[in-house]
Amino acid sequence: MQLAGIPCPLCSQKILLESDGTWCARCETVMHRDCLTAAGNVCPRCAGAYDAPEGHFVYSKRCPECFRLNDPPRARCAGCEAGTRWDSPDAYAAFRKHMKRTSIRSALLGLLEIAIGASCLLSPVFLPPVGMVIFFLLVFPAGAGLYVAMKMLIEGFGNLVRSWQCSGFE
Ligand SMILES: [Zn+2]
Ligand SMILES: [Zn+2]
Ligand SMILES: [Zn+2]
Predict the structure, then answer these.
(1) pLDDT tier at 128, thresholds 50, 70, 90
(2) Structural domain containing residue 72
């Protein structure tokens, strides 16, 4: 959760540093750690014992960006600093859904790129009349036909790998 800039209800001052703030997991009220301690760990909104968010944190097993193992669990990936901590199981579940959708999109894009790349390379060989038309209308005017086709193939396989990594994210 973004804490900096949010006014603390206990002292009415804005929170300046993320590390100075915390929030109540029950009502999501953001406040200063020090103010909360001074208030005897009672949430001003719930008027009851403050529910520390740390008890609800969920850490992913892998980084969602570079897929490096997040072990031992850290809030940020040791390799690329991407966030590997979610504030609640719900937030984590929503993110996993997003990764599944990314996986499907990458797979479709990858297959499309491979199909285009392969047909550019192979069409003149296997389908002389149609292939020649495709080759000279689409590939040749682009300048370096071979370069474009290879780029499509490489990107396509890259997207398939990414799709596979995203589908395994947890
Ligand atoms: Zn305060
Ligand atoms: Zn509360
Ligand atoms: Zn990473």
Answers:
(1) low
(2) 57-87
Ligand closest in space to the Cα of 70: 3
Q: Which ligand is nearest to the CA of 66?
A: 3
Tell how far the Cα of 52 is from the centroid of ligand 1, in angstroms.
16
Distance 9 CA to ligand 2 centre (A): 11
Question: pTM of the entire structure?
Answer: 0.74
Amino acid at 133: V
Q: What ligand is nearest to the CA atom of residue 78?
A: 3
How remote is the CA of residue 141 from the centroid of ligand 2, in Å? 64
Rounded to the nearest angstrom, the gap between the alpha carbon of residue 43 and the centroid of all alpha carbons in its chain is: 32
Q: What is the pLDDT of residues 18-54, one digit of tens each?
A: 999 999 999 999 999 999 999 999 999 998 889 999 9
SS (H, E, C) 87-128: CCHHHHHHHHHHHHHHHHHHHHHHHHHHHHHHHHHHHHHHCH
- The C-alpha angle 37, 38, 40, rounded to 5 degrees, equals 65
Same domain, 145 and 100: yes
Report the domain count for the chain: 3
Q: Which two tokens stand for residue 77?
A: 């990936």
